[in-house]
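hey can u check if this looks right to u? its 246 residues, i copy pasted from the old doc so theres a chance i mangled smth
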Amino acid sequence: MIETPDIQRPSKELIDGLAQIGSATAAGELYRLGIRDANIHGPVAWTQGRSIVGPALTLQFMPKREDLYGNDEYADPERQLHRHCLYHTQPGDIVVVDARGDMGSGIFGEMMLTYFKGRGGLGVVINGCIRDYPHCKEVGVGLWLQGVTPNFHTQTNLMPFAVNTPIACNNVLVIPGDIIVADDDGVVVVPIKLASELVKKANEHHEWEEFSKIKLSEGGDLRKYYPLNEEGQAEYQEWRKAHPVH
């Protein structure tokens, strides 16, 4: 019997806090917290307009070796570790897959993603492909992909290898339970240890940017209001007094 580990999920308060910011703000503030590039390059939004935040279930694929993995997709379904990854799904989870950038393997299809959605899953991030895309896009989960293919997951070059272990998704380290922030700008991996500080910094950033946006829309000087120079900062502090944060 195959057994795979579950993940430790963050608090709802932390997820709700991160849900108030986008991937661009998350990436910028993580840079200022010491993470040079938290963006998973490659996967892009195939379900545009969706914005999701949640903990990462991880799935690793490796190059297929025929003595370890045969060609019959349904010979022994319980050997398929991509199923076991989905078995762990709880409401709000996001699956992140290291598919090695392979464009000939459909990691999930309509049936798998329907099951994932029924368990409360939010979305998948794959540096590779899915299949059944015309149907998958109607399932209701967010899709961040490099492409689509008619092939099933082990048909050509890949085999599922590990569930809920650290993975390198397009050379970005994802630890199981890291928080994923994904929207139309892309996908950002938030290390769980930095999540609380990120929420704090992002809220501060959002406040002064709101003030700057108002001033710039009124024809204000870019050199004064973005970023705030000393004069703009003083004006912002006065504005905050008149517009307290609730």
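The chain has two domains: 12-190, 197-242.
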